[in-house]
Amino acid sequence: SREVRLKSRPSGMPTKSNFEVVEVDIPQPGDGEFLVKNEWMSVDPYMRGRMREGESYVPPFALGKVMDGGCVGRVVESHHPDFSEGDYVLGSAGWRDHWVSQGEGVRKIDVSKVPASSYLSVLGLTGMTAYVGLLKIGALKDGETVFVSAASGAVGSIVCQIAKIKGCRVIASSGSDEKIAWLKDKAGVDAAINYRNVDSISGALEELCPDGIDVYFDNVGGDHLEGAIDHMNDFGRIACCGMISGYNDEHPEPGPANLFKIIGKRLRMQGFIVRDHQDQEENFAREMSEWIQAGDIVWEETVTEGLENSPDAFISLFEGDKMGKALVTI
Ligand code: NDP
């Protein structure tokens, strides 16, 4: 059995040398416990924060210890009354081949109608982040104009499509022509910006949003946030989901130079963490399943094969050309 440990804390962009793949014994389940063989694991931008020392909203990874994160696996041995051999489960013991649990925080999942991996993407916390962030935090109203950054990513691609379902005009930003083509052809956005090819985000938005922006779903921060603030309509809402452009900075960049505009425009800017909104889970699961069945939501997964390649999959979140949700098959 193998596990991936944090070998050293990155300075700037993470590299493979920050990780170490180690052989360990397969853990043995005792009474009231079960053993899981992982099949899928998730790599997520928030894990970069956990590679730093010091508290963020989740505790940091410990040096020399196995990392963790969302995973889907199959129960291969059980001495627990509620979990049987063959059950598929969703847990948080990623970055390893096997794990033992007493069932706390572990959920059985039904893989008969949807692929197991979707519980780590569209039907999992990723999809729910899009749902809660756009509808509850962004308080989206039908027919508004929405701007979404990192729009071809796991969360962003779902945000774009929920906004289209709600009859909104959607402007998306992403980092390659291939991603822009996907956003227009598959996600159905109304206009898209390849931020690597424009002089400024604000200039591009001026052209594409003549009537302003009502909701900005921020995954990126930095110049995307500054550009959005320039073009927000009065009483607009900014749902602050992530600010990935700064995650590898050793020294945080100064904030948007135009922040004063939130006063005159009476903007509401609100950060949120998806785990605080579990009361939305039932609504989310029901609506998302309906949208998927109706063909209104499509999603992409970029799959990396092999636990040993999980560091590459993680690094690709910051510099790669992955589409949709980044996952690893184990
Ligand atoms: P993504 O699948 O969107 O992957 C990250 C993407 O961000 C990349 O594919 C890349 O796309 C883009 N990106 C990377 N670096 C930069 C940069 N410097 N400037 C602009 N774009 C960049 O990840 P997720 O969908 O999982 O997460 C999206 C955001 O949501 C993250 O900020 C994450 O931290 C946050 N998040 C927050 C949650 C919450 O509860 N608040 C829960 C889940 C995620 P491109 O090629 O377009 O640049």
Structure overview:
There is one protein chain. The chain is α/β, with parallel strands linked by helices and 330 residues long. The protein has two domains: 150 residues, Alpha-Beta Complex (Quinone Oxidoreductase, Chain A, domain 1); 151 residues, NAD(P)-binding Rossmann-like Domain (Rossmann fold, 3-Layer(aba) Sandwich), CATH 3.40.50. 25% of the residues lie in helices and 25% in strands. It contains nine helices and 15 strands. Strands 3, 4, 5, 6, 7, 14 and 15 form a seven-stranded mixed sheet that branches. The protein has a six-stranded parallel sheet with strand order 10-9-8-11-12-13, with helices on both faces. Strand 9, helix 4 and strand 10 form a beta-alpha-beta unit. Helix 2 packs across helix 3 and helix 5 runs parallel beside helix 6. The longest helix is centred in the middle third of the chain and has 13 residues. It is globular, with a radius of gyration of 20 Å. The relative contact order is 0.15. The model has no long low-confidence stretch (mean pLDDT 97). NADPH dihydro-nicotinamide-adenine-dinucleotide phosphate (NDP) binds next to helix 2, helix 3 and helix 9. Keywords: Oxidoreductase. Its EC number is 1.-.-.-. Pfam families: ADH_N_2, ADH_zinc_N. One of its GO terms (molecular function) is oxidoreductase activity. It comes from Haloferula chungangensis.
How are the SSEs ordered, and which strands pair?
Blueprint: E1 2-6, E2 19-23, E3 34-42, H1 46-50, E4 71-78, E5 88-91, E6 98-101, E7 107-109, H2 125-137, E8 145-148, H3 154-165, E9 169-174, H4 177-185, E10 191-194, H5 201-208, E11 213-218, H6 222-231, E12 232-240, H7 261-264, E13 268-271, H8 281-293, E14 301-305, H9 310-319, E15 325-329
Parallel strand pairs: 8-9, 8-11, 9-10, 11-12, 12-13, 14-15
Antiparallel strand pairs: 1-2, 3-4, 3-6, 3-15, 4-5, 5-7
Helix pairs in contact: 2-3, 2-8, 5-6
The protein binds NADPH dihydro-nicotinamide-adenine-dinucleotide phosphate.
